[in-house]
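Support reply, case 0932

Customer input (verbatim):
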Amino acid sequence: MHLSPVPAVIQSNMTVALAIVCRPWLMRTGTPPGILLSWKAFAGHCIYAGTSTDVIGNSTHPLENIMQNRTTVILTSMVIGASLISVAKAQDTALKKSSELQVLDRYVGSWEETVISKPALWTPERTTTTITSTRKWILNGQMIENKGAWLPGKNEFLHLMTYDPQRKEYRQWYYDKDNLVPQVYRGKWDEATQTFTFTGPFADGIQATGQQKWLNKDTFTWTLEAKDRTGKVVLDMEAKCVRKK
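Our regenerated output:
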């Protein structure tokens, strides 16, 4: 049996079918049109039309093979197109942030923080320290990762922040070498005052309350106050955070 490449008409129909199926998400996602050319080349080399013999020995006309191949190619193109659309939708879902998560976009970048520890049970004397940190999106844009160090001792820390749509609240976790079991804070965002308010438990019944207030797109402040069961302040901190240019 002589085999010849699929005629241009079939390749053209195949490409058109694939383009019709895929065009909406190709335009939306900016996917290069070269994918259609690659698929066209693949079909042109791998699918053939020609005279052949069926299982009972009857010869089939090349035109019949061409029409059969044409239908197969179009159907195959539609199946592949549907698969590509599913992948594109999954990518869109992964990259799309809720309005609550979009609030956290402002944190992305490199920061320098000046932290003041006021006199309290755990910090008898007033001290000032510096933090350098970098915040970025992780987990397909669903969580902010904040990694940095307390200076001058270079005590590294990891701080995570996200939004819980089930509980309708923001969450924060903080880790460092002295806090390997995370401190967990839950809070709300006040758009009017541009302020996050968080609360969370320390060990031994100590409760902490903190705020993060945005002054402008490159500056925010935060406070943290922790009290024991008797109401005595054990930790009282405040900081100013400035984005590095």
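We compared this against your earlier run and they match. Two observations from our side: The radius of gyration is 31 Å. Confidence is low (pLDDT under 50) at residues 13-22, 33-56, 87-94. Please reopen the case if you see a mismatch on your end.
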